[in-house]
Each structure stands twice: as structure tokens, then as C-alpha cells.
Amino acid sequence: MIQLRNIEKSFQTKAGFTYVLRQINLDIAGGDFITIMGPSGAGKSTLLGILGLYDHAWEGEYQLLDHPVQKLSPKDRAMLNKRYVGFVFQQFHLLDDLTVAENLDIPLSYRNVPKSERQALVADVLDRFGIVAKKDLFPAQLSGGQQQLVAVARAIIAKPSLLLADEPTGNLHTDQGRAIMDLFKKLNQEGTTIVQVTHNEAWAAYGRRIIRLKDGWMEK
What we know:
This protein has one domain: Rossmann fold. Helix content is 35%, strand content 27%. It has seven helices and ten strands. The two termini are 22 Å apart.
């Protein structure tokens, strides 16, 4: 499903180039469940952003479902993202001027799901996450944990082929975190490819494989 070859990411500084990722070579098969771990500043979130087609300023080769990402226009990359990718952002990235229900509807509208079906899917996900009572509230009216639940719900609602999660349980208490990880496990068993970033060893163990980054390099 995914092949990364010599992916590098750097920034120009007064002292020269500062590398965030160095020579990343990684294959992820369809249906895999990968955990990325490493200290702060290791490049974990940067790598996830590249995988999710949000970061375009990198070098190397990236094949996603046989699409050569490095050769695609920004418009085509965006289309690929909307069609195949669900992303749980560390900072949620909910749209402040939309209600919870409207935030959940957005990924479905990108995939041209009929409105009647979208309403049923939103209702189902609201119920699954126990946030039916929050559906007409705006993100600013929610706690951090509630915003996290909405962010996870939004990422999975359209049943993406690839689910990327950056610290998906960071603002949740242990029981909520375990419920989210159990849901990820179920989605993975049903065929969803998952790549998560976490510092939590217990949640990391849900993955089938752990990739460790340090100073931008993959540890052997």
C-alpha cells in the first residue's frame, strides 16, 4: 500500500540545513497496523504529515496505492487524501464555526456520500462515541477530551483505507483511551491500514510492528 524511499525533510537555517527526517525507507502493506515511537523532536509527526499528504516539502519517493505522490500536483494529492485518508490530529483541527455533527459530516461530503446516508452515518457515530448530546455544540464548548473523541470520530466516519493517528488518546482518560484503541484494533481487523504515533507503551502494543525514530533516523 505504501512505499517510502529515501524520504528526507529539512529546513534552511542560518547555520545551514537542519534535517527533520533522514533516509526513511519503509514499506507498509495494506491491512497493517504500525506504531511510530521516539522522543520529542524525532520526526514522528512530520513523517505522519507526509504519509497523510499534508506536507509537500520533502525529498524522495512515496508510492501510495500505486500513485507516485512526488509526481502529483497539489490538487491531485488533495484528492488522494480526501478519498483514502483519515487523520487524527494531535491538535484536533476541528472547524470552529461548525457544530460537532457538521464537523463529522465534512469527510462524507468529500466522498460524495448522499445527504440521507450522511445523516444516518453521523447519527451512528455520535451514538458509538457517546456524544449524541454534544451534536449541536461547537468545538469551543467542548472539553479537550470531548474534542479528541470528535476528532477520532471524524477520522473514521468515512471508513478510510488509511487511518493516521497522532497521539489519538493524548487527552483521554485510560478507559476512553482503551476504548479508542479497541476500536482501532477492530477497524484494522476489518481491513483498515493504521499508522499511529504514541508515547504510550500499552497503546503501542496494539500495533503489529513498532518503528522507532531518533533524530530523524529510523533505528535499525
